[in-house]
TrEMBL record:
This is Agmatinase. One of its GO terms (molecular function) is agmatinase activity. Pfam families: Arginase (PF00491). The keyword Amino-acid biosynthesis does not apply. Its EC number is 3.5.3.11. The lineage of its organism: Bacteria, Bacillati, Bacillota, Bacilli, Bacillales. InterPro entries: Agmatinase-rel, Ureohydrolase, Ureohydrolase_dom_sf, Ureohydrolase_Mn_BS. It comes from Shouchella xiaoxiensis. Keywords: Hydrolase, Metal-binding. It comes from the Bacteria. Belongs to the arginase family. Agmatinase subfamily.
Amino acid sequence: MRFDESYSGKIFIMSRATYEEADAVIYGMPMDWTVSFRPGSRFGPARIREASLGLEEYSPYADKHLEEVAYFDAGDIPLPFGNAARSLDMVEEYVDTLIKDDKFPLGLGGEHLLSWPIFKAMYKKYPDLAIIHIDAHADLREEYEGEVLSHSTPIRKACGLIGPSNVYSFGIRSGMREEFAYAKESGMHLFKYDVVEPLKQVLPQLAGRPVYVTIDIDVLDPAYAPGTGTAEAGGITSKELLEAQKLISESDLQIVGADLVEVAPAYDQSERTAIAASKFVREMLLGWVHKKQK
């Protein structure tokens, strides 16, 4: 069932007709209540879906067609505008339902704080959970200007939940001195600037473990993804992120869920960010959903 049965907007290309027949469920999280620079990521899920209509259903990276994966686009969770705490509770409650129904949760943001309630829901099911975090920013702050519910805090919260040694961050090129010091001292795994080569080192260590993957679109250089709220120069290319996704697909991990966040369409007249994001979502569906079905 979709959140709004009268929904007439776009859904992700080749979404199945019913929730019941799906192995994976795409859901939108249209929230940007805590962003620290430019708002607008609440419009990301809708634009990613619209951009997906221009995709080829076949992926040469995965050598698979979207018809081979049963997924359902549930639309956007109706989050209450401006109420971050209640919005996070609603996301956690919905992901709890997906896990109970044995669905692979694939979330579209929205700001990165939205990953925090998902981490909590996944950890209830998988106490040995590991997190792969691909991002420009460390997101290891305890608060931002006194606000503990901030899009700069989800990975620090994750470290407190599952233990720093179970958190793996890639592509990081921005953060406070204190964030990098915490990463070094706590025992979490933070890899600066690059994604592909560090992943090659780490993936064998995670073999067989349940892993949740969160991708912030701003890991890409602004040349490839200008449509994001907190762009950072010096990022990776779209090709590198696709290679990273393929590495994860081909690894011996149990991928239990994923999200892609921080697409803010207002800052990208070319729509290259949403177009790229929709392709990354396609590769998640084709490469990761089957891992849950082992």
